[in-house]
Amino acid sequence: MPRVFVQGRPVDSYPRLTPEALRGAVRRITEVGEEVLHRPCRDVTEFGPELAALISDMFLTMHVADGAGLAANQVGVGLRLFVYDCPDDDGVRHVGHVVNPVLEPLDAGDRRLLDEGEGCLSVPGAVMDAPRPDRAVVRGLDQDGNPLVIEGTGYFARCLAHETDHVNGHVYLDRLTARERKDALRQVADRREAVFARRAARQEALSS
């Protein structure tokens, strides 16, 4: 059975560094508190080389930051778009991008909430328990404007919901209590420098 799904379809093998990332450039990751992260993003209306280049940059930026998903506003671009390279709870790798994503509502009987650790590249160093459904279905488009549907379970479902939150102008801290949010920001203050050092080391190793 294939252990990788690309754009929702199984493949026999796939490189560790995605082809898009090989064409990309690293961009600065925005951090919680910056306006672009806290307002809804605009729909993508133009499909072409500029969009493809943005997707490539996002894949490389996500890889350098050791992330599982990255939304366009996390690199300062207020468009409804995210990329992902994320395992599910069975260890199956899921790779792809979604343009203009919409998270489908699930019936109460079709989901259960998992209260597990969640982090964010824009909240560097913090990990907090946050409730998410154990299943997610996202509808959107690919970079050529073709419709797609991506389904995920477990950790990958968390990733899909997390990234769709981003394009709607929300960060996962918005799901926490005031005390939990304060704790998360304290973690950022303590760990941010170490996180950025690891990112710089990964970027240097990649370019050497």
Short description:
With 208 residues, the chain is an alpha+beta fold. It has helices at 19-23, 49-64, 154-167, 178-207, and strands spanning 4-6, 9-11, 69-71, 81-87, 93-103, 113-119, 127-133, 135-141, 147-153. Strands 1, 2, 3, 4, 5, 8 and 9 form a seven-stranded mixed β-sheet that branches. Strands 6-7 form a two-stranded antiparallel sheet.
Descriptive overview:
This protein has 208 residues and is α+β, with helices and mostly antiparallel strands. The protein has a single domain (4-207), classed as Peptide Deformylase (Alpha-Beta Complex). Helix content is 31%, strand content 26%. The protein contains four helices and nine strands, in the order ββααβββββββαα. It has helices at residues 19-23, 49-64, 154-167, 178-207, and strands at 4-6, 9-11, 69-71, 81-87, 93-103, 113-119, 127-133, 135-141, 147-153. The strands form two sheets. Strands 1, 2, 3, 4, 5, 8 and 9 form a seven-stranded mixed β-sheet that branches. A hairpin with a 2-residue loop joins strand 1 and strand 2 (9-11). The model has no long low-confidence stretch (mean pLDDT 94).
How much is the average pLDDT? Answer: 94
Q: How many domains comprise the coordinates?
A: 1
Strand content: 25-35%
Number of strands: 9
CATH topology: Peptide Deformylase
Helix content: 25-40%
Write the layout of secondary structure elements.
Elements: E1 4-6, E2 9-11, H1 19-23, H2 49-64, E3 69-71, E4 81-87, E5 93-103, E6 113-119, E7 127-133, E8 135-141, E9 147-153, H3 154-167, H4 178-207
Parallel strand pairs: 1-5
Antiparallel strand pairs: 1-2, 3-4, 4-5, 5-8, 6-7, 8-9
